[in-house]
Each structure stands twice: as C-alpha cells, then as structure tokens.
Write a structure and sequence with these properties.
Elements lengths: L4 E2 L4 E5 L4 H6 L6 H9 L4 E5 L13 H19 L3 E5 L1 H6 L17 E3 L2 E6 L2 H7 L9
Parallel strand pairs: 2-3, 2-4, 4-6
Antiparallel strand pairs: 1-3, 5-6
Length: 142
C-alpha cells in the first residue's frame, strides 16, 4: 500500500494507482510519469492515488477497489491534507471523487471548473497517458 506524500495546504494531485516503480520504492509519483508531473508542478503539492495498491496486471482499478480505498483512505486523506485545490489526473481520479461517471469522456471535463466539498477541482490527463500519446497536462491552477 502506497500512501500519499507532500505538503499540506496546497494543490493535491490524485492519480489512479501506484505503478511498478512506486511499489518498488514505496513512494507515489516517482516513476517516469511521476517525474514528468513533478517537473511541471510549482509550489506546495501533495501527491496521492485513488487506489493505494497496484491492480493485477496494471489494469484500471475496478469500481469496488476505488470505493474500498475511498472509504478507508482517500476521503480522510483529503480532510487531513486540507488542499486549496485538487487536480484529478485521469478518469479514475475524477470518478473516485464522484465528479464524473465511468461511462463519460474525460475530454468533456478538461475545461470545467468543478468542486468537491467546497474545494476547486480540475481534471486533466494522467501523466502516463500524456507522455504516451503526446497530450499536454494542463495545470492552470498550479
């Protein structure tokens, strides 16, 4: 299980699940995609994932796994970190906050100003997806 890390009272970045490098180092967002993201982030930031364990065969987390981690960790993690803003990195993160349904298209949320419990939320591509397909990660609030 990989816990989030970083500074409180800043931007909270929520990804999907830890990758192989994160599992090996027991830290979040330290693989190639994480390094790509961290290079773009300026200021106080906290990094975490919707699901704290890597799903088998690196598949997308199932809804029950997202709900399990939400109930046990993510909701209280958000309360403890007290972020000034949240950036959902990909669809799984947006679904975990309940601001997007699994059958909706991520592109439809990229420009929207969203909110979770009074905290401003933006949705952008996960850095692994962005690197693989040449998309930019829009971090307008950071």
């Amino acid at each position: 299980m990989i816990q989030g890390e970083g500074e409180t009272n800043g931007t909270m970045f929520i990804g999907e699940a830890p990758g192989s490098t994160e599992i090996m180092l027991s830290r979040t967002f330290v693989g190639k995609a994480g390094q790509y993201l961290r290079e773009k982030v300026k200021g106080a930031a906290y990094f975490t994932n919707s699901v704290k364990c890597r799903p088998p065969n690196n598949r997308r987390p199932k809804k029950k796994e997202i709900n399990y981690c939400w109930e046990r960790w993510l909701d209280s993690e958000i309360s403890q970190v007290k972020p000034t803003q949240i950036v959902c990195l990909g669809k799984t993160a947006a679904v975990s906050l309940g601001i997007m349904n699994p059958n909706e298209n991520l592109k439809d949320y990229l420009e929207k100003d969203l909110e979770y419990q009074g905290i401003p939320v933006k949705v952008t591509y996960h850095p692994a997806y962005a690197k693989r397909f040449g998309k930019s990660i829009d971090l307008p609030m950071v």
